[in-house]
Every structure is written in structure tokens, then in C-alpha cells.
Amino acid sequence: MSSIIEYLDASCEAYPKAVAVADGARGLTFEALRRMAWGLGGFLLEKGVCGQAVGVYAQRKAEVIAAMLGCAVSGNSYVPLNPDAPAEKTKKILAHAGVQVILGFADGEYDGADAGCEYIRMDGECFPVSDTRPDVTVRGEDTLYIIYTSGSTGEPKGIRKSHGSVVDFIEAYVRELGFTHEEILGNQTPFCFDASAKDIYLMLKTGARMEIIPSEKFIFPVQLIEYLNEKKITFISWVPSALAIVARLRTFRDILPTTVRRVAFVGEVFPVKDLEAWRTALPELEYINLYGSSELAGVCALYRIPKHIPCPPALPIGKPLGNSKIYLWEDGKLVPDRGEMLVASAALADEYIHDPEKTAVTFTEIEIDGKPTRVLHTGDWARYDENGDLVFISRGDGQIKYKGYRIELGEIEAAVNALDFIGRACCLYNAEKERITVFCTTDRDGLRLRDLNAALEGRLVDYMLPRRLVVLDEMPLNANGKIDRPYLKTML
Questions:
Q1: Which of 73, 125, 134, 401 is deepest in the core (most CB within 10 A)?
Q2: What is the pLDDT averaged over residues 50-75?
């Protein structure tokens, strides 16, 4: 298959009456999903919208998936918009992507009028349907979507993904993990974040059902587990913070998931003590550490955690997915054991739109086995362990020179997170003051730096011990549940 449109057709033909996506309030069968996609596609073409980027407010509603597919079947691409983002940030994204039409789903959404956009409300009875496919040919190289993330400067950056790159990833993902039509996916990641694409296109490829879990359930972990059981969810792929909340609030003393068979996590390092809380309560589940980046369609490596043995202190990234190869790189050459990870795969993104300089730096061509090969420079450093698995060390910007030593801040962060009295920790470096700072949450009253460093003795060498401790009531998180490191840097 060359486009996700073929996935939609195949699942619709095989399972027309099966529920494709549900949001707690409404469920759409594959047949209904395709009729809505065709209807919206025809509607956009009638308006003269073809080959354009269309803004889609990424509310946690089933109709949003139909809207994304409607853009795709009409030869357009979609740009997921964060409904909670400030209007000024959304305005920048609309201008950068060249969006002229916005599809909306809730009251109060920024309508883009002052950015020259047309806002069209699409929920409920407003959504067009059709039994006729739009007369457009969609190819593998055509753009499927443009995802926006904040770069190191805080300015949005748009990453272009093609149909072909998504198909390449999904085919490998399904082969590796053996997903079938019987799967029921519990979606946690907001649709304005790239990790959600794994759930969406896995559903389309296999004919599985995707349950969009209401955001408020993650505030009340017992209700969250009740929801998983009620919907008979079998597979979850969440950010570690969502899984950690369940573990830290002792949820499993009150209720256990009864239908979940596999738990995957992606986006950042999952503290081993929180993972072990899940494994202790639910030892027969399969736990999978996924690794990827926004510059890929999906993930490129995974590690299946062996059952009934303790997790290693540093959880491996594992080995490449079948469609990818990973190389280590340092000082302008390939190295055998430790370096920055480079990924070669047909699932790489196309480019950063309107930023040829960043594209040229991040996506380069190097010679591998005598052949020029396009690779992604991930910015993540890793090493191989004794089993040949890749182990994450830190981000490239997490490497510092301190007192003449090269230090990985990720190693310090992992050591702090492993302490029983630490809830969550983040380690940052102030280069001007030459000071390593740990931000953390804790259940120990009056925790001081000397107490922390005493607990770290034997885990870290002396020169790696932090020189400043900031105890927080709550760790600041971004909308995707990851630690908000840019915000913490303002506190250095």
C-alpha cells in the first residue's frame, strides 16, 4: 500500500459495521468514518481547496479523525491545531503552514479571521457525508500532515510527513507487535501531538477499535482504570507521566486493569521504580519501551522488557524496528559503541517546512557500506549494552563539560529518579554559573541538597553530584505530559 487511504478502504471493506473510533459520547463505524471522509473531501474540493494545508482543531472527538481523513482523501494535508494553545501561537502556525481553511469542533476556538482564514464548524450535523469517493489520486509521496512542535527557541517548527512514510512505519509496527482486528486501543495522546498518529493509523491498518479516553479520566486514576475495563481496552501506548500517576497514587490497591494485555510507553524516560510498580501489580502483561522522534513517522526502535526479572537501572531503547537501521556517530564519523543515534528509514519525515537550513543539518546523506544513505540526526546519544541493545544516555544538549569531565545530565537524572523519596526529577545545567541543578517533587519534608547528595553516594561519582536543589510542589508538564524543560530553564 502507498497511502493511508488504502488502509481506510481495506478496513471499511473488511469490517464496515465495526466501530473504528469512539470518544465516550459517540462511536463511528469504519463505514461511517469513510462516508464522512468522502463527504468532507468532496466539500473541500467544491470550495477549491486541493493540495493545501488545512487546519484541524484537534479536539478529543471521533469527528476529528474523520476530518483528518477528509483532508487526506481530497489531496490535502492536515495541520493538527492545539485547542488549548494561545491564539497568537496558533496564528503563527496558520501563517507558517499557509493555512486558509480551519475545521473546528468546539465553542471558543480561535477562528483565524485576523490571519485571513475561513473557519468552518464541523461537529454534529454540520459534518458532510457522501457515498462517492472524491476524484483525486493520492500518492505515497504526497503530504499527509504537518505537525508543529516547539523548537529550542520556542518558535514553532513544522515537520512534513508523507503518506508513504506513515505506511512504511505502520507496516513494520504491525509486523513487529502482531496487532490484529481484535485489538482495542486506548488513546491517551492528544491529536495535536505526533505520538497520537501511531494509534490513528494502527486502527486504520488493522481494523481495530480506538477508544479516545477522556482527558479528565487521567486526573482520577481509579476512574481511568474503570474506563479501561469498561471499554475492554487491550493495548495502551502512553507517555510515562500518565502511567506514573497510576503507580504513584497506589491505584492498583483499589482496582486492576482486567483486559489490558500490553503496555507501551514513549516520549521520555520512564522511571524504573514506576515501571516496577506496574510490573509488580500486573506481572503477566507485556511492557514495551518505544523510541522515536517527531522527525519520524512513528517509532524506530523498541525494547520488550523480559518478564519476571528486575528491570536494569537504565532501561534500554532496544533494537531497531524492521524498517529502520540505527547507527552511532561522533566527530563526523560512524563509531561502534557510543555516540549520537542516526536513523536510516523510509519512515523519515520529508523536511522542516520553510527551513532548508535546519532540514539540511538534521537530515543528511552519509556513505554507509559504500552507498549514499539519508539519515536523521536524532540529537540523542546512546551506547550498546552487553546484549547488543541500545541504551539512551542523554540528549545531545544534555552533555556538559564540568570540572574537566564530560557528564551526561540524563545519568544524574536517572539516579535521582531512582530514589524512593523522589516523585519526579529533572536535571539541568547553568553554564554561566557552572552549576548542576536538580528540580524534583518529593514526599520527604524539608529535603535539602545535602540529604539528596548523601542518598546519591555510591550511585554517582562526586563530580556529578548536583550543586543546587529546587523542590517543587508539582513538576511542570507540557500538554503532552512531558516535563516542561524550557520553563524550568527560566528558573536556573
A1: 73
A2: 97
